[in-house]
Amino acid sequence: MTDILTPAFIISVLAAAVAAGTAILFACLGELITERAGVLNLGIEGIMLMGALAGAGACIWSGNAWVGAAMALAAGAAMAAIHALLCVGLRANQVVSGLALTIFGGGLSAFLGRDIVGVPPPSTFHRVDIPVLADIPVLGRILFQQSALSYISFALVGFLWWYIYRTRAGLRLRAIGERPEAADAMGVDVARLRALYVIAGGALAGLGGAAISLGTNPGWSEGMTAGRGWIAVALVIFAAWNPARAAVGAYLFGGVEAGQFRLQAAGVDVSSFFLNMLPYLFTILVLVLSTRESTRRVLGAPAALGRAYTREDLG
Amino acid sequence: MTGLVTALSFLLALLFGGIVLFLAGENPLQVYESMFSGALGNWNGVAETLVKTTPLLLAGLGVAVAFRMQLWNIGAEGQLYWGAIFATGLALFVIPGAPGWVMVPAMVGAGLLGGALWGLIPGVLRAWFGASEIITSLMLNYVAILSSEYLIHGPWRDPQSFGFPGTPSLPAAAWLAHWGTTRVHLGLLFGLAAALLLWIMLRRTRWGYEIGVMGENPRAALYAGMPTKRTILLVMALSGALAGLAGMSEVAGIGHQLQRNLSPGYGYAAIIVAWLGRLHPLGAVLVAFLLAALTVGGDQIQMSLGLPAAIAPMLQGTILFFLLGGDILTRYRITRVIG
Asked: Do residue B143 and residue A280 have CB atoms under 8 angstroms apart?
């Protein structure tokens, strides 16, 4: 027990937290822009699975991890397009459509991936140290000795924050999630824009899947996302729909995941079954606390979240 | 009209699945033929389909009750596991020597209770903290499965079992009666009885009426003085209890022990049962049977053609897509004609 709390151990857990949190972060950012546009997508888990499969499959086929990442983006976008068609185009029930997407993605990925279970991808997103920055004490080890996908996710957090809060396009994004009537009256094509953000969000969730199958846990196996898509959905509430807070949440979960393995490796005498419960219990705790906070401080959900928009509403 | 859309959704999903199978290099007709003959082509298949109908129906009824009130309980899987855990614990450690006429009703009670308590957790979090029951009930599925794994690998493990970890076998008094030589057991009657009772309750009682109003219009319910918090808790408990009974039936009727992979996702398929059945108890009976046939067919092609059984959930998801789309299109058509 005594060797657990050394600085070196803590730093290595934090570095592992960023590595493990990258997949959740991509998925969480994807759900975040989807919800900002006023659409709830509960299909993230299924989309991540398809992304993980497409990533591993395309990489095995081409030998190049970047081709895998591109295919994961495409698979995620294609899956989300179903949700966009049903919920934005046909105004179907978003909760049920998302659940259907998760069930569908789980089944389809298991079927299509039947021949590559356990096949190691020939190339993965391994650790790339950034010159100079990687040598900064502590921070360098945590932030700049990561994979290329992690660096992309850092940039994405910054970009999305700037995009949502500082650009005209971001203003329109917030408008269609908060007051679609007003946005429509301003001349924004609400349905088209919502569909675009749902699809873009799905692409990011797909990439999150590849961050697992080509990153932290190389190769494909059925159901390999193990609920991370759901954790990402819960984290959006914790993040109060803010990309920077999403990063904090994702790394928190990466930390729980990483710490869990390290505690086991350090021989802590708790059944692994209980350690494996931690991320799920922690999600519930975080959700309860952040729901209370967001209702108290009214920095809550986009006002039109989950509500289909029709022109008739303009009355 | 809605029946037509449901039937059409089934057919279109099969068509779509056929295209996927074809593109994946399989012969769709051969796959479907094998699925159909495995599930409904002979009495053995029909009996197996009825075996799978049991948990799908019970858990699907539970989900339907909650969905009616716009409570999105997707934790049926975990509630099923806790029903199984309670029932197993009771039979093995509390009243192992009890005769059947005590044992079976007591296990039914334990299954209902285990599921109800597990369902109450997201209910309480929703009623008091406003936390989304979608996420909490789903997260609790993983916790429930890990709890069951812990028990069967740890304190409840049968020391005589080597390869396949599981609890010791339940005493014979706990085994549910079977129909002839098939695996069809008393649990099916539990499911049918539950469907009938729910149908009566939703139609004929004040409470059923309140659930309806609260689901349709929470604000009106609040103004009418209906107790929303209490109803959330009651509905989540009832919803969980039904899933718990499904878990109890699987243990007492099929496995006769708590073991790994007790449920191959019945709790998730239950969502489809509920929605395709239009949240109607009697609709759930029909859809549970159809989805059970799909599941048995999936197992069949795994055995005979070596294809993954995951074709079943893929088709289930697709049916739901077509249903969601089809419903809206018909509604749109109707309003256009009137307007």
From this structure: yes
